[in-house]
Structures are given as C-alpha cells and as structure tokens.
C-alpha cells in the first residue's frame, strides 16, 4: 500500500496545474502547493524533526495547517493536532503525553502555548501574527515564514520517510470524561479511510469541498485527504461563519459538503441562504451526531442533492456504517462500510459474542481487523482494556439493527436514560420533537428523580416565529410545554418515553464540533430564555 507522501505525489503528477487549496487570497495549484510542502518539510527537518517525532499543531483550518499536515507525511513525522481553543493545561497534557518535539501555534492559541511549561522547552513555530518574538512573553523560536524559505526537499526525488506502517496522525479524543486519549493512526489506516470516504461518497476527479470541519477532528482530516485522492480542491474555512461559508459555496462552486448537523442547521437558518446559489453542491454528507428528521427534510429540499450520506464512525474506527440515501429512511445509519464489520451486543457485554436480536438495543461494536481501524490508544492500557475486547472495538454507542439489517444509532451508553427501570434513548424523543414547527433545536437528557431514578427532560430552543397548535393551526404565542406534550401524545412515541418536563433555552450547549453536551444540561450549565428561570415546565 502507498504511504500518504506518495499519495500526495500522485495528485501532483496527475494534475499539476489543477487548483488544490484556497485560503482567502492564497490560491495554489498542486505543483505550487507541493513546492511549499517541500520547503516546509525541509524546514522541519532542519529543526531536527524526523520519523516518529510528534509535531503539535494548535491551528485553525488555514493553508499553513494543511501544508504542515502534508509535510509531516513526507518526513514520517506524526501530525498531532489539538483544538485551537485548548486551554494551557490541555496543551501541557498533550505535549507531555505525546512527547512532542515542536509545537506550531497562531495568535488565537498563543496564550495557551505560553501557559504550557513543556511547550516552552521545545521549538515553537509561530504562524501569522504569532510569528514575531513579541507575540509571546518567551517568544516563538521560529516562524512558518522561515520554514517556507528553508532549503526544500528534493522535488524530483523527495525522501519518503513515512511508510505504510508508520504513524501518520495522532488525534486526541474530546475527553468528555477524564483526560483526552491519543488515537494514533498509521499511514495505511489513514489511506484506507480516505479511499473508502471517496468511494462511499461517490467523489469524482476534481471535486471541490469546504474545509470546515477542524483538522484536529477526523472529519476534517478525511476531507483533506479525500480531495488529494481525487485531485480536488480544499477550500479552507478557519472559523465557521454561515455568511462566509455561503459566499464560498457560490464563488468556488463547491460540489460536496461533509459537516456535522449543527452546521447545516446554522447555514439554512442564515438570512442569505435563500439568495445563495448552492446548485453546484450535488453531494451532502454528515457525521458526528444524529440528524433529526426535520433538519434532514429541510436540507434535502434546500439542496436537492444527488447523494445524501449518513456516515457513522469514530476517530478509532473511521467508518462503521454508511447510508447513501439518508432521506429514504430517516435516522438510519445504514450498513457496514467497505472496510468494516459491525455488531450489536448487550449493553453490559464484555465479549463480542453473542449478538442480540434485531430490534433490541445494545452497544455497537466494530471489528478491529478492518483496514481503517486503529491498533490501540497511546499510553493508555486502561482505555484499551475498557474498549478493545476480543479483537473488537466497543464504541460506547447504543443502537439496534432493524428487520432489514440496517443500523440505527440511538446515543451513548452514558446518555441512556433509565426511568422506572426502562431504558430510554434521547434520540428517539428528539426526532419526534424536532418535527414540531415551533421547535428550532432540541436535546433530551435524564435528570435525577427521587421516584423514577431519572426523568425525561426536553431542552428546547424555540423558533423565533410563532408556534403551531397540535392540530396544525397557527397560534400567536410560541410553542409551550402543553403543545409539545400534545404533539408527543399524538405521535408514535410510547408513553414512558414522553418528556415529563420542558426547559426552554437560548441555545443547546455543544462541543466545538457540534456535538450536544448533555452533561451540561444535566448540570444546569445552560442559559434559559430571558426572563425565565431554570425551573422546568412540567406536564
């Protein structure tokens, strides 16, 4: 199997004059970008970085970040990206845990790097405004501009130090409980995942995508690699902004989008969407979180895509399942991807067998023998013991397989609500409530209850416009608990899953990549609507 350095060379050789990357005024063809990558790789090598060394990257989605990623692939250096919003203690932990030799940062992450003791002991590469010694109390030791002027790798015969078995990338999980876990991924695993992404999304040569999902997240990395596979264009979006994204879709004639549901929601809600030409977008993909029925229908109507893909996976096992017709069966995550096998076992299972019957909810597992699967966590035998069992990865996600053999992902094991002895998935309830025209966004969580153990509570962000009655009649007032309860009673939602309380909020708390943070809802860490207290509106 080819390594990722050779993979990038394929596109350079096939399509040297094709536009490869855009970031504001920066517009580079594959040949031009390769020249920059060779210089940057040469500069990293001059700093002493080589095969197996980790390079921490605390950057937004800018062309420098993408260039550094490819430079690492030629050198055999392990690209180790962190959230650019990381706090000093997070940078410190990852710097120590990875044993990184150097760190790259920009102005937005400069304070966090300055607050890390370990970061001050390594080479510090400043990008943009962070390039000057005055940018930090202790200063950047060099700049990205210096790397660009360093003696380059031999462009005609570049050294390819990273082989298929070498580590290409190490992502850190979000660490919602405890410290984040490093997920090292080999060149062969990353390449297999990118090839599968191309095939499963029916990408063609010359595709154009928005680099919206952060390059510290598996979705962002997949978009970057997939475009190189098809000699396509990667348009950098350093920080998500609906207006800017819509302008880029129209001006760059974007052909595919691969985003979390939250960003589609925000895009459709923007006032300029109706006036934006989005007809170039023919393929829609989403991952990272379930997409509720109402948003699914709105996206389909707005874009009318040829292909609408629900992708379910993780940093550890990139693709678990794929559904290439998400609208036909809302909520369905489909069947195992090209490089994967999956199963569903009891929630408390410690072995991959036996499996549970169709229709029964359990924990989703994936075969570690798949080409995309990782080998184990970085320096975390405790995490390996918890999640890697009998050659299978226990995802921590709940779901079931229906009578047709299709997977439905219902949430996280930790998010499961147990009320009166019944297991209740938040996703089922959210899907029903999302279809009410008075609901903009909704998240469901279990709050402690003396009698039931937990009670089902719906946190609702209302539409700014007036609500709609239970029979479809328009009302002057926004939707309230009584209307939503009536909506649930007339749906196919079984009674014990019906929310007992409703909390109306200004926003649903989410992670930087758009995942609902239910733990914040349970802890009361949210903003209620103005003039409302955090008391629940019970029904």
UniProtKB/TrEMBL annotation:
Pfam families: AMP-binding, AMP-binding_C. Keywords: Ligase. Residues 10-378 form the AMP-dependent synthetase/ligase domain. It is an enzyme of class 6 (ligase). Residues 429-515 form the AMP-binding enzyme C-terminal domain. Its EC number is 6.2.1.31. InterPro entries: AMP-bd_C (IPR025110), AMP-bd_C_sf (IPR045851), AMP-binding_CS (IPR020845), AMP-dep_synth/lig_dom (IPR000873), ANL_N_sf (IPR042099). PROSITE patterns: AMP_BINDING. It comes from the Bacteria. One of its GO terms (biological process) is fatty acid metabolic process. GO terms for molecular function: 2-furoate-CoA ligase activity; medium-chain fatty acid-CoA ligase activity. Belongs to the ATP-dependent AMP-binding enzyme family. This is 2-furoate---CoA ligase.
